[in-house]
UniProtKB/TrEMBL annotation:
GO terms for molecular function: electron transfer activity; heme binding. It holds the Pfam family PSD4. Residues 414-474 form the DUF1595 domain. Residues 666-691 are annotated as: Disordered. InterPro entries: Cyt_c-like_dom_sf, DUF1585, DUF1587, DUF1588, DUF1592, DUF1595. Residues 489-616 form the DUF1592 domain. It comes from Geodia barretti (Barrett's horny sponge). Belongs to the cytochrome c family. Residues 634-733 form the DUF1588 domain. Residues 142-205 form the DUF1587 domain. This is DUF1592 domain-containing protein.
Length: 831
């Protein structure tokens, strides 16, 4: 940003003063007692005068009463900012980022603004020190369904389909579903937990009384199956699917294949040539089906009978029944098995002029009755067991049955040993005699009706619904008064740590340290944190649960680009988009990179499908590999198609949506909700030349009701306009008319503080060099770590975490360690 003397400063300098020299120069050594000072512009000003001069003009009682502004600052005592900490934290965020005062209003010079921000931050921190952060309120914290699934897997070695067992959880305002305040409990939900516990206990031990069930695995309708679609399928295959299916008992199972059909229920791609479809179990071929080629000749090769002329009636019947015989029954041993289904790929070169492949989402494709092309799998259904028997051994049985009684006299002692071990992990603490007595009572009830293993299964079912397992309960320490913060004990700290980094229960090593009372020792705690971060599940949890919710990546599964505007979009591309970002994030966590590299990294991960979408040559096959980017267009998250697609409309880009996403998720300054009577953008009249989105938005901003928010959001979104609605690079806008050249894209703009930037490169540099991004990331990571929303009393802790992590370039391990050592993470309060 240009200053009066011609110098240029970066947004990072404007966001936070890091030396006392600048403060002394800017405000003449402003003291906490709000004494007067001299600014660089030669104007004497106090913090109160600063507010009166630059804030109260708009943020007055009158403006607030009229609804023109969300808050009033008139008459507030600047000597007691701690009395209105929540309000001043909001002010601090917006003034520090340069959003306030707005560019159209009277603004202080940069040195005075930064000095005032530094003073206010210091005062808020001092007030918080006098009244320490309150810690987490005593709220019973239910495990969300992802945590429940992870806990079951760690406890029993069983990966269950949790989406089929439990309903989705609500999310808080920041998008996180592990917030204790939104994890409600209802009678219906507890019934689902009871049903889930019964099913899980039966699967884990292999209950011979399990009824036969069918599990269908769908292939998405928009997935193109002309090439290899999974790393779990062999080379030289195409289409199909690979799934991990749990076979609960030793017995026979039926595998049934349904082929993809068109709108009229005719199976696609039967043609004249048979196709070989392989069924594999744990990658071993168990059966080969033949699909198509049942009729010779070309009389029905280009049209189905009934929709054309000259066909055979027999072909019409065959076209709707050809997959009825695609089923195979075979014995399978219990356990988790990899089931693969794929066609053999026949290498061939298409003849004639290469035509663009039609989008599977279009009506024309769904009603196409041509028989050329490849058949495709619609679903695989696995049914069983038939004549099932209890398995002799599975990984789950090995984890549960730590002892096997040789005769009835050993059963009671063995049962107690098994249940003690399970309860310790499930309850996340040493077990008591009362715990064991309760579990043994359920064991005895089950044993009387079905023997030893039935008794263990009954006790396990109770364990999985016990409030000590389903809820994270932190008990009140004796003698602690309401409203007073106090440290959590070692066992509670261990649970907080494991659910933060693993989304699951503590392992034995962490529990041992907690039970011995040594976990709070700084050296022990750091050693445990680093050990946990080194495990693959830590980076998977942080990438999927934390970053997936922080960035909104989970919404990508629901993105539905218009097939008319984006015929290239299909399920293969959607999956590649998501996988790219997931691999990128996991690499950032694994390599312990500085947080700013999320925005600046000069590499990404692509397979052939995504590389073609990006225009990156030399990438072949479905396997993802790391590639260096040829330029900075796609550097970091903001160049990845996943982010660009989920922030677009179905048929075009949206600078407003993208700008709002940057403000909320990267700068932590969400705009207010739009008014209810927002007018639509002007539509293009017939015969008019195309108008750029920038011009339409400028006309939109002339409306005073829209100008305030759009002045901040739109420039950030325009910086991303070189990417279309599914993340392809472009230099001109799309008009929706085939062959028409749209207006040239102008990606330049102004940052919230008024500094100019040019396109993605300029915006990326501003975001990465400033502290607002790392501050927002710190807030979001702390919210996820403690499972509650932040309060004004937590913000000094956020700034402290940010400063501590900055000493190590804000690397992920530094951020995590600073959070784990923070007051909000290690304390709680009553009432």
């Amino acid at each position: 940003m240009p200053l009066g003397d011609g110098k240029v400063v970066t947004m990072s300098w404007l966001f936070r003063v890091t030396t006392g020299v600048v403060v002394a120069v800017a405000l003449g050594g402003l003291a906490p007692d709000v004494s007067h000072a001299q600014t660089t512009a030669g104007t004497e000003v106090s913090p109160s005068a600063f507010v009166d001069r630059y804030c109260v003009t708009c943020h007055s009682d009158r403006g607030y009463e009229r609804g023109a502004v969300p808050m009033s600052l008139q008459g507030l005592d600047m000597g007691e900012v701690g009395a209105h900490a929540e309000l001043w934290e909001q002010v601090l965020r917006r003034v520090r980022s340069g959003m306030m005062p707005p560019p159209v209003a009277r603004r202080p010079d940069d040195a005075a603004r930064v000095a005032w921000v530094d003073w206010l931050e210091t005062e808020l921190d001092r007030a918080a020190d006098a009244r320490p952060p309150l810690g987490r309120p005593m709220t019973v914290h239910r495990l969300n369904r992802v945590e429940y699934r992870n806990a079951v897997q760690d406890l029993l070695g069983l990966d269950v389909d949790i989406e089929a067992l439990l309903p989705p959880d609500d999310a808080d305002a920041e998008g996180f579903d592990n917030n204790a305040e939104v994890l409600s409990v209802s009678t219906t939900l507890m019934e689902r937990y009871l049903t889930a516990a019964r099913r899980i206990s039966q699967l884990a031990l292999g209950d011979p009384g399990l009824a036969s069930r069918s599990q269908a695995y769908q292939v998405p309708e928009l997935e193109v199956q002309d090439d290899r679609t999974s790393e779990d399928l062999p080379f030289g295959s195409r289409g199909g699917l690979a799934v991990r299916h749990y076979f609960p008992l030793d017995g026979e199972y039926l595998f049934k294949v349904d082929l993809r059909r068109n709108f009229y229920n005719y199976i696609r791609g039967l043609g004249n040539t048979p196709h070989e479809l392989d069924l594999r179990l744990d990658k071993a071929l168990v059966n080969r089906f033949l699909v198509g080629g049942a009729f010779e000749g070309s009389r029905c090769a280009t049209s189905y009978c009934g929709s054309g002329s000259g066909g055979f009636p027999e072909w019409g019947a065959y076209s709707v029944t050809a997959d009825e015989g695609l089923q195979f029954r075979m014995p399978v041993q219990a356990g988790m098995r990899l089931v693969g289904l794929a066609f053999l790929r026949r290498p061939a070169i298409d003849e004639g002029v290469l035509q663009p492949r039609p989008s599977p989402a279009t009506f024309g494709y769904s009603t196409d009755d041509r028989q050329d092309g490849n058949p495709a799998v619609a679903r695989l259904t696995i049914t069983g067991p038939f004549d099932g028997e209890a398995p002799l051994e599975t990984p789950s049985r090995q984890m549960i049955l730590g002892c096997r009684p040789a005769h009835s006299g050993e059963e009671a002692g063995c049962a107690e040993e098994i249940l003690r071990k399970l309860a310790r992990r499930a309850y996340r603490r040493p077990v008591t005699s009362r715990d064991v007595t309760a579990l043994l009572s359920f064991y005895e009830a089950g044993r009387r009706t079905g023997g030893f293993e039935a008794g263990i299964q009954a006790a396990l079912e109770f364990l999985l619904t016990d409030p000590e397992f389903v809820f994270r309960v932190e008990r009140r320490s004796p003698g602690v008064e309401a409203g007073v913060a106090y440290p959590v004990n070692d066992l509670e700290l261990a649970s907080r740590l494991s659910f933060f980094l693993w989304g699951s229960i503590p392992d034995d090593e962490l529990l041992d340290a907690a039970a011995q009372g040594t976990l709070k020792d700084p050296a022990v705690l750091e050693r445990q944190v680093r050990r946990m971060l080194a495990q693959p599940r830590a980076r998977q949890t942080l990438a999927e649960s934390f970053a997936g919710q922080w960035l909104g990546l989970r919404r990508l599964r629901n993105a539905s680009p218009d097939p008319t505007a984006f015929p290239e979009f299909d399920e293969n591309l959607r999956a590649a988009m998501y996988r790219e970002t997931q691999l990128f994030l996991e690499t950032q966590f694994r390599d312990d990179r500085p947080a700013a590299e999320l925005l600046t990294a000069n590499y990404t991960f692509v397979n052939e499908r995504l590389a073609g979408h990006y225009g990156i040559p030399g990438v072949h096959g479905n396997h993802f590999r790391r590639v260096a980017l040829p330029d900075d267009r796609r550097a970091g998250l903001l160049g990845q198609a996943s982010i660009l697609t989920l922030t677009s409309y179905a048929n075009r880009t949206s600078p407003v949506t993208r700008g709002k996403w940057v403000l909320e998720n990267l700068l932590g300054a969400p705009p207010p909700e739009p008014p209810t009577d927002v007018p639509d953008l002007k539509s293009r009249e017939e015969g008019e030349p195309p108008t750029s989105v920038r011009e339409l938005m400028e006309a939109h901003r002339r409306n005073p009701a829209c100008a305030t928010c759009h002045r901040t959001m739109d420039p950030l979104g325009f910086a991303l306009e070189n990417f279309d609605g599914i993340g392809r690079w472009r230099t001109t806008e799309d008009t929706g008319v085939a062959g028409e050249l749209g207006p040239a894209i102008d990606p330049s703009g102004l940052a919230p503080d008024g500094s100019e930037f040019e396109g993605m490169s300029g915006l990326r540099q501003i975001l990465a060099s400033g502290e607002e991004f790392t501050g927002t990331l710190t807030e979001r990571l702390l919210i996820y770590a403690i499972g509650r929303r932040l309060e004004a009393a937590d913000m000094p802790a956020v700034r402290r975490i940010q400063r501590e992590a900055a000493a190590d370039e804000s690397r992920w391990s530094a951020l995590v360690l600073a959070i784990v050592n923070s007051g909000p993470f290690q304390t709680r309060r009553i009432g």
